[in-house]
Model the fold of this input.
Amino acid sequence: MKSRLLSLSKDEFHLSDETFSDLELDKVVQIMARQDRAVAKTCSLVLRHPTASRTTIIQRQHVLEDFINYEAAFKQLYQTVHAAISKAERIWGEMDSVYASIPVNLETATAYLKIYLQNLKKVQAVLTKTDFQSEGLIRLQAEISKYLPGEYAQAIALLDRLRNYKQLLMRAYLSNDLRGRDYQLLAYQEKLIDFHWLHTPRLKLAPRDDAGANDFAFRKGTALAPIAAILVKSAKTIISFYQELARDLEFYQGALNLYHFLQEKALQTAWPIVLPTDSFRRKFVELHNAGLAGHATDIGNSLDIQGKNLYLISGTNQGGKTTFLKSLGQAQVMMQCGLFVVAKEFQAPVRLAILSHFKKAEDHGLQSGKLEEELRRMNQLVAQIRQPSLFLLDESFASTNEREGSLINEKIYAGLRATGNEIVSVTHLFSLAKFYATDINAVSLIASASRNFKIFPGQPKPTANGLDLYRRIFAS
Done:
């Protein structure tokens, strides 16, 4: 029994802590969580594990679209599932504990099953009365309907009677040493007197016969063991199902929180068109940075490029180049997690890894030089490549001079492109940008000189950024 609203699979890959931080996805998680720790933990987990499966991405989109369209039903599901888990957490006892007797296992399993099965009927009712269209929610409804009328419902009815028994009728055989063996439960009885019991042997324990009491407890436990084992297994199955469903719903709760936040900021969202991994098409209209929603520097950018594997962004300092790079990376991660993106339109191919190499602040505790540290980080990234990967580079190897920095970048670009990867790189190295300006498989993007944070295709310019800053600050 599985929820599968997220359909976690082997197609997922891990987003490094460095890339998560570079793309400021922690800000996205904060918006999604709205101070709910459980939602924050789940959303962070999902965003750190994008999927490379187009099928999974589209299935998640459809489930989220259903929840947006029927948010009242989603709230019922969310509250119902978490209320059951909260109630179950108050149950005393632990199944399969080495200290637990068979009757205790049976009692604990009964308590769990009764809570979850009663609650499962409520979940089924919400799913049935709501006109959900997504494959994931239709499958969930079918999964619950498959199990609810069958063994689980029969088990809970049996346990309700068994928990209130007064007498048990057991059968056993004598072994060669005259000990009992093959104990089997034949019947249980809620009343003390019944004609089925009239001719069965009866023994009455003395008030302080501890040995006899222990012997009877052993025989009773042996007879109940098969039932207890089945019920413990059933309880574990339904507990696992609820834990998975709760986790899935926490992610969609975060997605709804993000959706409403963006609506409050008057920002549009779009369902990405998910292209296959062999595509090199990128198209987006008014793409925004989700973490900067509503900020003055949050300006939408548009692009429509086909067949390029290198995007080289240059231009004016503080012109929005790094913000644009983060926006593109965020949108790629959000798309591959099954979310909407902050844009009017978005098309992008699936990538098997998303890797970043951003400039870092000077670390005075470094045991080696800055250039060596950058090279070491790049070497670690190369080891994580799964073709085709998306590389996001922000002023890589800016710690050395222009000639050496350009040469290093050229070599890295050549190796990554030759193995089928895609690169989006911000650089201040004019010679590097000029070198690729005529490359038919590369596109040159520039930041507007007016610092309106717009990025658009254009030829790199040998801008004297220092002089530019001087004129802006000291112009009379």
Observations:
- Residues 210-264 form the longest helix (55 residues).
